[in-house]
Write a structure and sequence with these properties.
Elements: H1 3-16, H2 23-26, E1 28-32, H3 34-41, H4 50-59, E2 64-68, E3 90-94, E4 100-104, E5 113-117, E6 121-124, H5 142-147, H6 158-163, H7 165-170, H8 176-185, H9 189-202, H10 220-238, H11 252-265, E7 267-269, H12 276-281, E8 294-297, E9 305-306, E10 312-315, E11 322-326, E12 335-338, H13 347-358, H14 365-368
Helix pairs in contact: 9-11
The structure holds 2-acetamido-2-deoxy-beta-D-glucopyranose.
Residues 230-231, 234, 238, 250-252 line the site of 2-acetamido-2-deoxy-beta-D-glucopyranose.
Pfam families: SET
Keywords: Signal
Organism: Sesamum indicum
């Protein structure tokens, strides 16, 4: 197994939630010409090509690696997966307009669950901290909740607790000032940085785990706020017994880089009411959901481009695991796109929000018709 392939495997396995198996037999690593890549660089910031740019560097070659999943697998065949789940019917490749994107590697039917993805980092919103699992954001039963009216956090299961190595680190420090600052300022992303920092210190992820995502270009007023946040985070850790060598990664540069990626790539988690089957019966793109329970960052879901009339959407049924669902029948080779914003807004409002929030002008078919 080559080094580049190993990197892809390491990056994608945790996201896809299953082992990819022997690459030589199951996967092919196809290569696109680098001129395609340079053409795409002129495209929107949202064209998060940095993922492939990173692979490019790691592969030490002038080509971009793209991942193809075999088209004969079906993710819906859950009965026959005693061995391991099948790879999703998608591949990541280059679009003509916006760098990389996600494509169907076979025909996909309306309502099909295309894949699920586990977050790299997630955190409940401060208002939900005592009512949801501190790891997976699942709603805690109300009996457990009333016991937790105080200051502690809870996990919904021993599995979630076992996977929360970050919490062993977090417990060592007093977060009251940090949390209070976030609460007063109405900040949610520093909580994700805090969680990530604890994950890094506990050794479950490396400090550059988010580098594969496209960053936002930071504005100058954000930089001064950011300095305050990083000092607060640093002081909080300084007050614990965590060794300084374990905290060496925690620099202003690291904080800025991580925050810039979180700002563009974080999903707001709204748990849908009902089961996946209920959702299938709803033809609409939007599903009824309760208020946001938290925020999370994923890799694969961040590779989807935007469309104001999307053919897939992402739903959260019971916890933070993202479920990517087909909204209509999709042909093999078609690009899969999600809607980054509230699709019910009119043309002008959508254009403004997409430009201000994501830095691109939308040219989707719906926008072309000024709908
Ligand atoms: C964190 O605090 C230590 C000790 O006060 C200091 O030496 C270090 O420069 C600080 N790091 C950042 C990123 O502020």
């Amino acid at each position: 197994m080559g080094f580049g392939i190993l990197i892809l495997k390491l990056v994608l396995e945790p996201i896809l939630g299953y082992s990819m198996g022997p690459w030589a037999t199951t996967y092919k690593l196809s290569v696109l010409s680098s001129s395609d890549f340079h053409t795409s660089q002129r495209m929107s910031r949202l064209a998060r090509y940095s993922f492939w740019a990173l692979q490019l560097r790691k592969l030490h070659s002038s080509h971009i690696a793209t991942l193809s999943f075999p088209s004969s697998f079906s993710t819906s065949a859950s009965q026959s997966t005693a061995t391991r789940p099948s790879p999703p019917p998608i591949h990541v490749g280059l679009t003509e307009y916006a760098g990389r994107g996600v494509f169907a590697s076979r025909r996909i039917s309306a309502g099909e669950l295309i894949h699920t993805a586990q977050p790299i980092v997630s955190h409940p919103s401060l208002s939900s901290v005592h009512t949801v699992c501190y790891f997976c954001l699942r709603k805690l039963p109300s009996s457990a909740r009333s016991l937790e009216a105080s200051q502690t956090v809870s996990f919904c299961s021993t599995q979630c607790e076992d996977q929360s190595k970050f919490y062993d680190v977090e417990k060592k420090a007093d977060w009251s000032r940090f949390n209070e600052y976030c609460r007063l300022q109405g900040l949610k992303y520093p909580l994700l940085v805090k969680r990530l920092a604890c994950q890094v210190i506990s050794g479950v992820v490396s400090s550059d785990v988010l580098d594969i995502l496209q960053p936002e270009i930071p504005s100058s007023d954000r930089i001064s706020k950011m300095k305050k946040e990083v000092a607060l985070l640093n002081n909080t850790f300084e007050g614990s017994d965590i060794g300084s060598e374990q905290m060496a990664f925690l620099t202003e540069e690291w904080y800025a880089g991580v925050l810039a990626r979180i700002r563009i790539n974080a999903f707001r988690i709204e748990l849908a009411i009902g089961s996946y089957e209920d959702l299938l019966s709803l033809a609409a793109a939007s599903v009824e959901a309760e208020a946001a329970v938290g925020n999370a960052v994923y890799v694969l879901p961040s590779l989807y481009n935007h469309d104001c009339d999307p053919n897939v959407n992402i739903v959260w049924i019971e916890n933070v695991d993202a479920k990517v669902k087909a909204l209509r029948d999709i042909e093999e080779g078609e690009e899969l796109r999600i809607c980054y914003i509230d699709a019910s807004m009119d043309y002008k409002a959508r254009q403004t929000i997409l430009y201000e929030g994501f830095g691109f002008h939308c040219n989707c078919l719906r926008c072309a018709s000024k709908d």
